Amino acid sequence: MVSNGRTSTFMLKYFPAQPIKGGDIVNVTGAGDTLVGSLLASSLTEGSAFFEDDVKLAKAIDNAQKAACATLECVEAVSPDIRRLA
């Protein structure tokens, strides 16, 4: 949602899921948390205005999905490999 004064605009955009590239799904625990945490980290480093920048938002979604995919392939709740994705 983009809010400006008394009016609000809702924007929906579809981002297709990325395929699991490295192997099989090992554990689903933490994948959603990893995705949301990655998006939160992007908003903190880029500033909340990045939600209004299509290019920065698409990059943040791409990075968040890569991090979630890495977690899906890991036995741990959050993959240590996400440090290399940044």
Task: Please provide a written account of the structure.
The protein has 86 residues and is mainly α. It has helices spanning 31-46, 54-72, and strands spanning 2-4, 7-9. It has a two-stranded antiparallel ribbon with strand order 1-2. Helix 1 (31-46) packs antiparallel against helix 2. It is elongated and about 45 Å long.
Can you give me a brief rundown of this structure?
This protein has helices at 31-46, 54-72, and strands spanning 2-4, 7-9.
Which percent range describes the beta-strand content? 5-15%
Looking at how many chains there are and whether they match, the oligomeric state comes to: single chain
| Biggest sheet features | 2 strands, antiparallel
General form: elongated
Helix share bin: 40-55%
**Roughly how many Å apart are the termini?**
26 Å
Structural class: mainly alpha
Low-confidence segments, given as residue ranges, are none
Total strands: the figure is 2
